[in-house]
């Protein structure tokens, strides 16, 4: 269980229903208190026990003595004109992580608000086009730090609304912020369970998506443990190129990744989603030719998938450029003609540096890898 940094109190934010029930039983209370408190925390955004009006005064007081509900500390927030919202959190130990909320942009998706949630501080996997990867890995986030990002985002729409009239505003969550979620497995699964739990956020399982660069063994675990939508960061249609762009491919090559993706769809648990989403970042002159598109068609021919092309988001000293709109169009035409549903991700929130892959923004680079990366750039510039 998480405890608050400064006190021995148990932080109830991020505890599963079972953990919270056990907590109440161990206090000599009835287990059903867990679902009452979960509703207060996650549906009404209330973290002061004295405002939980269906608990007795005595229980409120007892809870206040031994427990707390502490969301991650907002260090900085910025709300963009297009409706995008970004938060930088300072989590225990002083590390910074980012969360971005992206609203729907057209009437078809009216009301949709997608929150891009981080799972780690930095990332160990070092994909060559990713600014989080360049930062290196600092630490895993706890379940309360992960679910806390969603709690804070919802809270930003609740100001001035009486507690019991409040409702959640975030409709979709994508685990596509900083970090590789499958390398922080238990806290990520625990957090996603709270996202789906009707006593907590109650999101539909089709609207919670985990994105992975391909940690194959954990994909099999995920299939057993929870039913959420799966996105795979593919980015290259052959092993040679993928080894370069997504180095974890050297450990788990494409044949194994595609096999695990098929197992995720076809395993014995009936799945809501009968396809995976394939993410493919469009890097000018690197992975965006017609030949690459035909290779991709061949690779994915037996995998029910929707393809999402992501125009590359540049960051300082990035060794790549974004493919032109014409190139992206030609690439997606080949995929469409082969029968794939292929969409191009809109780049949103540029004005607050919140577009996908830019999550690091001005977050301090404090790791050795970041230093090495900056040194190598200086060397290249001086050569
Ligand atoms: N680690 C996970 C989830 C976080 S990254 C993963 O790799 O899937 C979320 C998505 O953003 C991934 O598809 C990633 O490849 C993509 N991404 C990273 N850097 C990017 C950049 N500079 N431009 C565009 N997309 C990027
Ligand atoms: Fe990590 Fe994903 Fe970035 Fe790769 S793309 S370095 S896995 S966050």
Please supply descriptive tags for the structure shown above.
383 residues, alpha/beta, DNA polymerase, domain 1, TIM Barrel, 2 domains, 10-stranded mixed sheet, two-stranded parallel ribbon, binds S-adenosyl-L-homocysteine
Written overview of the protein:
By secondary structure, this protein is of the alpha/beta class. The chain folds into two domains: 10-68, DNA polymerase, domain 1, CATH 1.10.150; 73-382, Aldolase class I (TIM Barrel, Alpha-Beta Barrel), CATH 3.20.20. It has twelve helices and 14 strands. The chain has helices at 17-26, 33-43, 57-66, 131-135, 143-155, 185-196, 216-225, 239-245, 254-266, 290-299, 325-337, 368-382; strands at 10-11, 67-68, 73-79, 85-90, 96-103, 113-116, 120-122, 137-140, 172-175, 208-212, 229-233, 276-282, 305-311, 341-344. A ten-stranded mixed β-sheet has the order 3-4-5-6-9-10-11-12-13-14. A two-stranded parallel sheet has the order 1-2. Helix 1 packs across helix 2, helix 7 runs parallel beside helix 9 and helix 10 runs parallel beside helix 11. The longest helix has 15 residues, at 368-382. The protein is elongated, with a radius of gyration of 22 Å. The termini are far apart. The structure holds S-adenosyl-L-homocysteine and iron/sulfur cluster.
Radius of gyration: 22 Å
**Tally of discrete structural domains:** 2
What compounds are bound to the protein? S-adenosyl-L-homocysteine, iron/sulfur cluster
Oligomer: single chain
Give the termini distance in whole angstroms.
52 Å
> What's the shape?
elongated
Strand content: 15-25%
Biggest sheet strand line-up: 3-4-5-6-9-10-11-12-13-14
What is the arithmetic mean of pLDDT? 88
Fraction of helical residues: 25-40%
The CATH topology annotation of the largest domain reads as TIM Barrel
| Main sheet makeup | 10 strands, mixed
By helix and strand content, what is the structural category? alpha/beta
